[in-house]
Specification:
Protein Transport Mog1p, Chain A; disordered N terminus; 14 strands; 20% helix; 2 domains; alpha+beta; eight-stranded antiparallel β-sheet; 234 residues
């Protein structure tokens, strides 16, 4: 047992002053403490502070945070926002044909080789959409599968040379159309669209007829943004 006691020292020389020294009685052994009272109190205070910090640290533990994984709000069937696509897409604008459309930056601008060339890869590469006369095609390089969009414009003068003479609206055009068609639920820049049995989309704007083909190897997301960014400039 550890006791703090005072050791009485015999006074051998009455003329000399002796002080009483405290010591520890540890298992019968006397261990003298040569520290003064102030130093001893300081040690006790430090020990108490350390113990107090340990107790507080034990009971006050930081609340563990559950790691969160960033997930996209888009599912595999959803289409990313148009703004994200347009950030890297280029603009194809033709003042004469009266339209503008955004397309992937790696695609090229083609001029179709005649009225029957829409379903084929056009042989002529243009530097600008403004160089196109009556039709334009946007798509990747020629050695790839048919991907992209074809847009043809036939104005009133052009229509007068066809069986659709006098047609300036879709409602007048459709009765003259041979074959079946469906009216699309979505419009293009506010205009009603009909799709024929050969997947040709037809619409009218300011009396001109626009024919649009989206090639079958174009993925759904790209199709969506091509149609969504097609705007009329007249």
């Amino acid at each position: 047992m550890l006791r703090f006691v005072t050791h009485n020292v015999m006074i051998k020389n009455p003329e000399k002053k002796y002080r009483l020294e405290p010591y520890f009685d540890f298992v019968g052994r006397k261990i003298f403490n040569h520290m003064n009272q102030k130093g001893f109190v300081n040690i006790i205070v430090i020990v108490l502070v350390v113990l107090l910090v340990g107790v507080i640290g034990y009971f006050v533990k930081p609340t563990p945070t559950t790691p969160t994984t960033a997930t996209s709000s888009l599912t595999s069937n959803q289409v990313p926002p148009t703004s994200l696509v347009q950030a890297t897409w280029k603009s194809c604008k033709n003042t004469k044909l009266g339209f503008e459309i955004q397309y992937p930056s790696e695609w090229l601008i083609y001029f179709p080789s005649g009225s029957q060339g829409a379903a084929e890869r056009p042989p002529i590469i243009l530097n600008s959409c403004e160089d196109a006369d009556d039709a334009v095609m946007l798509g990747p390089k020629e050695d790839q599968q048919p991907t992209g969009i074809y847009i043809s414009v036939c104005n009133t003068e052009c229509l007068n040379t066809t069986i659709y003479k006098g047609a300036r609206t879709l409602d007048v055009y459709l009765p003259k159309l041979t074959g079946t068609y469906t009216i699309n639920a979505d419009r293009i820049d506010g205009e009603k669209v009909a799709t024929t049995e050969s997947d040709l989309m037809v619409l009218f704007h300011n009396g001109a007829m626009y024919e649009i083909i989206l090639f079958k190897y174009t993925d759904e997301s790209t199709r969506h943004h091509l149609v969504e960014t097609l705007k009329f400039s007249n």
